[in-house]
Specification:
Shape: globular
Oligomer: single chain
Number of strands: 0
Structural class: mainly alpha
CATH architecture of the largest domain: Up-down Bundle
Strand content: under 5%
């Protein structure tokens, strides 16, 4: 492997931090929920707040890199991440934890886009495929180990230590950056940020997330709060899009979408974002609610998913340049569709092996998708626009993940209420097998029956959530068909 490709490993320090943070906290959600007295929809904010902060701050990556330099930006980002992570572990309330999770992501998320842009800039053709595979292993491998460590630490110590153990990882990444990344060349200081675009985008995204997270609880459009937030979405959405199409230097240059493969690649990546995180959030929630599975078991399940991802990424290192990206995209989403079919059959009696199998299949799908999505999206894009392209690429994945998790919980909680109301009707004095309990006043049996119905209603609602996952995976196929790509293998010239 050439020296250039070897240098990619140095940039994995940032993605290692990003990948570890991505999964290590998911297994601790049930314990955090109990410790901080949060409801299931409230605890989802521990994940969604992180994702939405990622989506909001990723657009700043280009300005930060140009204004302060890539090396300096990475150093300050890692330092801020370490402080925010420490404060996450010290949080005594859900509001505190969410605040520090937002800051944690705000410091870390631009780093991934900056590091990715370096890889895109330096490599083309076959070498870009290999470099991307190596680079993304910095996400896949740490994310594989993190849930195991997180589950064990959470079970043996407490949920706070899930965050505490990330602090030395951050300082290790900082040490690596100081040793391996060259000082930045002098950069102009008059680089300005598109504040109108940034503020309008941030307000629009935040309001959409609030509507999705609070809509079910506030009875949707019967609530004045929800109507006001929808009004803000329309106003700031109009400001953002009209400004982006007319400004000389917009935050997001929407004209990039005029390039066919870039537009299709971004759409595919958004759908991928919807599918990427969802199983890691829904399955721990389901296991806690229906089976009370230990945190370590949940961590092992999630880790198996990322082991499969790491295996697929390793395959990509050697064979990505030999396979047509369209074929790999069809393979990756096909595996997600198959996994969705399997997950839609989960119930209280589903074995851990069956869950592990379904999650491993999604992991393989993820591993096969990263490289072809990158290659297709940036295949015809001007290298000078790589930072902008990488921002949009990471932004759409984060938006897809954040919004889709909220939509999934809407499906689950809404159908759970409907299912419970339907099933509980059978708990009455006229039900033959319960008639004796009503006549004798056997409250224990009646309470047991109601509890069983609650579990059945929850079980059906999670099946609905996994069916939602299944149907979403089908959205990618029409976009893949429209990709313009030669039948021959990737050009190996660099």
């Amino acid at each position: 492997m050439s020296r250039g490709l070897g240098d990619v490993y140095k940039r994995q320090l940032v993605t290692t931090l990003y990948g570890t943070n991505l999964t290590i906290a998911n297994v601790s959600l049930p314990q955090i929920q109990g410790a901080l007295s949060a409801s299931p929809d409230q605890i989802s904010w521990v994940v969604t707040s992180n994702l939405i902060a990622t989506a909001v701050t990723i657009p700043l990556a280009g300005w930060i890199a140009n204004r302060f330099g890539r090396r300096r930006s990475m150093i300050w980002g890692v330092t801020g991440f370490a402080i925010a992570t420490l404060m996450c572990g010290l949080s005594s309330s859900l509001a505190e934890l969410i605040l520090w999770r937002i800051l944690q992501s705000a410091f870390c998320s631009p780093l991934a886009a900056i590091a990715q842009s370096v890889v895109i800039d330096e490599f083309t053709g076959e070498r870009r495929a290999k470099a991307t595979s190596i680079y993304m292993m910095g996400v896949g491998i740490p994310a594989t180990v993190a849930p195991i460590i997180g589950g064990y630490v959470c079970e043996e110590l407490s949920w706070s230590w899930v965050f505490f153990i990330l602090v030395p990882v951050a300082f290790l990444a900082l040490f690596g950056l100081l040793k391996s990344i060259k000082p930045d060349p002098p950069s102009p200081r008059n680089i300005t940020l598109d504040w109108i675009g940034f503020i309008s985008l941030a307000v629009m995204i935040a309001c959409i997330q609030l509507v999705l997270d609070r809509g079910e609880r506030e009875e949707w459009f019967s609530s004045g709060e929800i109507l006001f937030e929808c009004f803000l979405i329309i106003i700031f959405g109009w400001i953002f899009f009209s400004h982006s199409l007319t400004a000389k230097l917009p935050l997001f240059d929407l004209r990039l979408f005029l390039e066919r493969n870039f537009a299709l690649g971004i759409g595919i990546h958004c759908i991928f974002g919807m599918l990427f995180v969802t199983p890691m959030v829904l399955i721990p929630s389901m296991l806690q609610q229906l089976t009370e599975a230990p945190d370590f078991t949940v961590g092992m399940l999630i880790s198996l998913r990322f082991i499969a991802t790491a295996i697929a990424m390793l395959i990509m290192v050697f064979f990505a340049n030999q396979w047509n990206p369209k074929f790999l995209l069809l393979l990756g989403f096909g595996l997600h569709t198959y996994a969705g079919i399997q997950m839609a059959t989960f119930d209280m009696n589903t074995s851990i092996f069956d869950m592990a199998w379904a999650l491993s299949i999604t992991g393989l799908g993820v591993g096969f998708l990263w490289v072809p999505m990158t290659i297709v999206t940036f295949s015809n894009l001007d290298p000078k626009r790589s930072v902008e392209g990488a921002m949009m690429w990471n932004f759409m994945r984060s938006i897809g993940s954040s919004f889709y998790i909220s939509l999934s919980f809407i499906v689950i909680f809404h159908t759970q209420k409907i299912n419970y109301a339907t099933l509980v009707q059978w708990i009455n004095p006229y039900t033959n097998h319960l008639k004796r309990d009503f006549l004798t006043g056997d409250q224990a049996s009646l309470i047991s029956a109601v509890g069983e119905i609650s579990q059945q209603a929850a079980n059906i609602s999670y099946i609905n959530g996994f069916n939602f996952f299944l149907w979403t995976s089908l959205l990618a196929y029409p976009l893949i068909v429209l990709i313009s790509w030669p039948s021959k293998k990737i050009d190996s010239k660099s």
